[in-house]
Design brief:
The protein has about 210 residues and is α/β, with parallel strands linked by helices. The protein has two domains: about 90 residues, no CATH class; about 80 residues, Winged helix-like DNA-binding domain superfamily/Winged helix DNA-binding domain (Arc Repressor Mutant, subunit A). The chain has seven helices and six strands; from the N terminus they run αβββαβααβααβα. A four-stranded mixed sheet has the order 3-2-1-4, with helices on both faces. It has a two-stranded parallel sheet with strand order 5-6. A hairpin with a 4-residue loop joins strand 2 and strand 3. Keywords: Cytoplasm, DNA damage, DNA repair, Methyltransferase, Transferase. It holds the Pfam family DNA_binding_1. Its EC number is 2.1.1.63.
Length: about 210
């Protein structure tokens, strides 16, 4: 999986737009961390990964409407520039995604940087406990967290997930089991679930707690 920009990774407009956004510099850079970005190719479309030297901050499919806002958030919160280049978490995520799409393993141990509130991070941790190919309703996840009235909050936290597949927000479904609310497109959500159900993954270890 390539970790450098590839003209075939996305349509021209999206690629150009992402390239401009990635290379924007904060108004008052302080010379601290520089985040690296890379394209990761998958069977269901290219993804943009952004990381520092230690943790993965972003993993999104091209075309997501929230991608510009997510890149702007990273520049602001990290007070950092973003440019294309290599970083260990991007390489690790690419290797793990390759194993995932090949049906070998659904284990993701890439260190993550997750910016959510305590509740949001708790939702993301619960998502990572759902076995591959299985689903949970928003209500079931809320009840499992001891917050049965927090169904809408669970939905918001799920929608705010900045690290697709690794934090498997595609495993949440509507109360009637219908596929709903996937920013990468419902066709991808369906594809991912079918892929997981037809694969014979090795046992998935307990996910590493994000920091």
């Amino acid at each position: 999986m390539p970790l450098t920009p590839d003209p075939s990774a996305a349509d021209e407009l999206t690629r150009d737009a992402i390239g401009r956004l990635v290379r924007e510099t904060p108004r008052h850079p302080k010379g601290r961390a520089v985040l690296k970005a890379g394209w990761i190719e998958t069977p269901i479309g290219g993804m943009l990964a952004v990381a520092d030297e230690a943790r993965l901050h972003l993993l999104e499919f091209f075309g997501r409407k929230v991608l510009p806002a997510e890149l702007a958030r990273l520049r602001q919160t990290m007070d950092s520039s973003i440019d294309f280049g290599e970083a260990p978490p991007i390489a690790m995520a690419a290797t793990e995604l390759d194993a995932y799409f090949a049906g070998r393993s659904a284990a993701f141990e890439t260190p993550l940087a997750t910016p959510g509130s305590g509740f949001t991070e708790a939702v993301w941790a619960e998502l990572r406990r759902i076995p591959p190919g299985e689903t949970r309703t928003y209500g079931a996840l809320a009840r499992g967290m001891g917050r049965p009235q927090a169904v809408r909050a669970v939905g918001r936290a799920n929608g705010a997930n900045p690290i697709a597949i690794v934090i498997p927000c595609h495993r949440l479904v509507g109360a009637d089991g219908a596929l709903t609310g996937y920013g990468g497109g419902l066709w991808r959500k369906e594809w991912l679930l079918r892929h997981e159900r037809s694969s014979h993954f090795i046992p998935v270890p307990q996910p590493i707690t994000a920091t």
